Amino acid sequence: MIASETELRSLMRASLDGDAAAYRAVLDRLSLYLRAYYRGKLHRAGRSPSEAEDLVQDTLIAIHTRRHTYDVDQPFTPWAQAIARYKLIDHLRRTRTAMSNVPIEDAGDLEAQDDHAGVESTYDLDRLLAKLPEKMRRAIRFVKLDGLSVAEAASRTGMSESAIKVSVHRGLKALASAISQGRGR
């Protein structure tokens, strides 16, 4: 059974207060909901059930990394559903699903939106990346932006897999620091 809004909200509040067991419970309950949600949406789009599991994991990671943005005075379910919906849209766009494969009620989700924010984001990201050493920049671009595995990135750059991992880690840390200090502008 899918958890209720009251239960999820209570667990999320407890988890934000440091209760690790409550946090595991939130993620466990969400994974059940997400699995059913993604399987249904992907099935209607003629996609593989294995894609659903990838999306569940991506969404749980996104929820984990964005949990600090959850406002405990607001309902939890819409917040989590918005993240899930955007992950699905991004996945379908990234895997180039043809509009004819998407049910009519979901087609609006894939239509072109105002790309102004996307262009600005890309410009900002490029400016931030330009401040990093070439080695870090290439590692981040290959692994995080192009979606290559660490082994593939190592092969393309001639670096070791360990060096790729370290470069990505240090580069992301440097980017986070630049953003938090407002130097990205």
UniProtKB/TrEMBL annotation:
Residues 125-175 form the RNA polymerase sigma factor 70 region 4 type domain. GO terms for biological process: DNA-templated transcription initiation. It holds the Pfam family Sigma70_r4_2. It comes from the Bacteria. Residues 40-96 form the RNA polymerase sigma-70 region domain. Gene3D superfamilies: 1.10.1740.10, Winged helix-like DNA-binding domain superfamily/Winged helix DNA-binding domain. NCBIfam families: PRK12539.1, sigma70-ECF. This is Sigma-70 family RNA polymerase sigma factor. It comes from Methylobacterium nonmethylotrophicum.
